[in-house]
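## retry 2 of 3
previous attempt timed out at serialization; input unchanged, resubmitting
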Amino acid sequence: MAVLKKVGVLSVAKMAGIISAVLGLIYGLFMAGIGVLLLFTEPILGILWITSIIWAPIGYGIMGFLFGALYAWMYNILAKRIGGIEFEFTK
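## retry succeeded, writing output
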């Protein structure tokens, strides 16, 4: 049984940031679609919603990076005290 004792904070943060940015892009595309529909009734709101295709991935990416770093840092502290995650590998 292998135990994960420590994770790289920066590597986890980068991975979480990229994954979150991709999810933000999906969310931004969905919101931009709603924005196109809003253009017919409320042009200003429609434009704001369409810009979510730009701001959502950026915001999600930044927050994913920060929370990924926080979770990795917390994991490292807790793994020292209570033990890490156990893995079982097969050949």
